[in-house]
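ok so for the tutorial part 2 we go from a plain amino acid sequence to predicted structure tokens. step 1 is just haveing the sequence, like this:
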Amino acid sequence: MTHISRRPAALLVVVSLVAGLLVVFAPALAPVVAPQAQAADASDWDPGYIIDDSIFYSSNDMNASDVQNFLNGKVRSCRSGYTCLKDYSQSTDNRPSDRYCNGYSGSASETAAQIIDKVARSCGINQRALLVLLEKEQSLVTSTAPSSSQYSAAMGQGCPDTAPCDPATRGFFYQVYYSARQFEVYRLNPDSFGYRAQRWNNILYNPDSSCGTRSVFINNQATAGLYIYTPYTPNAAALNNLYGTGDACSAYGNRNFWRIYTDWFGDTRSYEPHPGFVDYWNSRGGAGGEMGKPTSYPVFVDANGQGWYQRFQKGVVYGSYYGGTAFVFNGPILDEYLRSGGPASGVSWPNAESTCSPASRCVQSFVGATITSTTAWGGHVIWGGLNDYWKSQGGLTGPLGAALNDVAYRTAGSQPAWVQNFEAGVLVQNPAGTFVVPYGPVLEAWQANGGGENWLGWPTSGYQCSNSGCAQRFAGGVITWSNATGAKVILGGFISEWDARGGLSKMGPATTDLRTSNISGGGWVQAYTGGVLAQSSYGMMLVPTGPQLTIWNASSQEKGWLGWPKSQQRCVASGCGQDFAGATLTTSETWGTHSIFGGLGGAWSAAGGLNGYGVALNDLRYTDTSGGGWVQHYQTGVITQQRTGSSIYTAYGPILNMWYHYGAENTWLGWPSASQSCTADGCIQQFQRGVARSDRAGNVSFLPR
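step 2 — the prediction. this is what the tokens look like for a chain of 705 residues:
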């Protein structure tokens, strides 16, 4: 097993053998098995924050007596013939004071505990950190049979793997002194070494470069110093077996330092703001502000661009490359964020501060989603295309408001869709687009018919309104609504016909449900505010709202004497008309609505109908006089039909006026027997029992046959 505990010299910018600045490789050692009383948890490992500066550079945590008691507690007795660290002593010499340490006053005999404490105070390094370095390098603290070589290379300082230790640093005292001094060299010359605090650093997993590197943001100087001293970071295999070995690419030096310190002395990180959070925390009032005091150490997350988070009394602060620094307050949004997986999830890192309305409706943006919260409904994530649409509509202050539940992915029906409820309606994203179905009758009708997973399918347009009502399209139909009509569904060919005739703006909302009919070959009927659409063997016909529709409705529509409409309504200057199976209805503003049928109807149609005789001016009239017959007035004249004869057309003029003046068919002339014929000099018309003539001046004379 390879355990490399020194940074390669090639990574150094400043190297001085005389000053003890040369950093080289230490002998290979197996990972140390630490006590389990306060076992470290690999989930707490943060490669960019191994130990806090305030801990590592504190030299007042222990004194020589404390160190001795600690060593005594680690080894009860040594093996015969060996000297354990708790019993070790040596003579020490003076070391000069310099920029890095305050020097050292030697003694003829000093214990290991005294040496550790004096060096710690001279160079400003924690006694505990020195004890951990001694253990992780040569297992000297817990060894019951340490060798002389272990004491000679106690801290691995100046001791390469491939050569003897530098005589200038060999031996226990020099190892401890120059190792502590080396960390001060790192601290006071931070730009002289390849690994630096407060920046990203590519750190090898193993001396074998083929094992790869990890990009680590080193948070503080103590962590940078440990990486310069031991230039490898543990891989997943090393962390997964925290108290044992990993794989061929594992290195253990910095893992073991953190693990041993945690097991022996507790947390390596004080509850101080992460160095990258200090300015942000202070800007928000520090410990007495809106964040409160830190309640945990920072945690590194190697996901979604990497970042850190730290808990405070009133929430959690997150910092990342992609999202920047943002605080998530305790409450529904934080609860939902953590439930969704936090920064390592698809929600990713927060990229904005939270905002709230007076009604306790809150929102916070994240790199991959948005989370909203309400007092009644709690916090919910808005994802993907739904989030994009929601933000485009104004977000929390827009028409949709806050999310009321989690997004659901629906696969039933003709197409998949994502569905989420908001304060103002249901937001749906499907292959046709993203649409809102607002709360109200249309949504209720849609859901009553099975919603998007049934025959109506998902919405294919937004909710639209006009003066007459509102409508929304779905894959299988259109739902319309108004206060007067309620919600009705338009289906099949009725949709295209409704669209062709102006849709909501002209046809208006449906006023009845689509119904089937078995009359005369069958068909379908649906009413709208703009008329009734009827589909039968005659085709799709509209009976528009007006007097003709009133009569057709009063006659029971296709079930009555008029039957199915046979044509679309057509209009001329004098009025409008529409053909039905049983009659034609014409309408004019002056003369009203009248039906045309039978033989007179046939004659009227044959002569061009509206374009010929024009609209009817009255209802068809029947009398028994002179054998019986029918009479009806039209825009250009009168059509009569005897019971036993054909229809006769008589144009308006002196003859017709005089005939009507004296009683029409009730006069001695009887019924017309031929149509009127005219020349420049006047007109003539045959009747049953005589002939009528009119001259150029309009004078009429009647002659018996």
